[in-house]
Amino acid sequence: MLAEARGSCSSVGKKRKLSSIQKAKEEVKRMKAEVKEKREETDQMQQQLMAETAKMEAAAERFESELAHGWAENELMMEQNLQDQYLLMLCWGYIS
């Protein structure tokens, strides 16, 4: 009878160990799924950031180009204005 009781206790102990091992495996599986999900979210966010960065770089390049074009136009207009002033001064006799 004592042997049966020991066997019974041993069986209960094994079941508890198996149950805790099974719970641990399920927890590991859940954690792996969570990590995979977070990794996918991170990858998606990284792609969005890269796309936004590319848009911003393109906008900056357009701005620089427009600025350079505007600067060149401004210099051309200033030069033309100076030439016009010079011609007016010649015509009015301020310069001989």
Describe this structure in words.
- Residues 1-23 are annotated as: Disordered.
- With 96 residues, the protein is mainly alpha-helical.
- It has one domain (1-96).
- It has one helix spanning 2-91.
- The longest helix has 90 residues, at 2-91.
- The model has no long low-confidence stretch (mean pLDDT 87).
Architecture blueprint of SSEs:
Elements: H1 2-91
Region (Disordered): 1-23
Please describe the structure with a list of short key phrases separated by commas or semicolons.
94% helix, 96 residues, single chain, mainly alpha, rod-shaped
| Poorly predicted ranges | none
Helix content: over 70%
Series of secondary-structure elements, N-terminal to C-terminal: H
Total strand segments:
0
What average pLDDT do the residues reach?
87
Structural class computed from helices and strand pairing = mainly alpha
Cα shape: rod-shaped
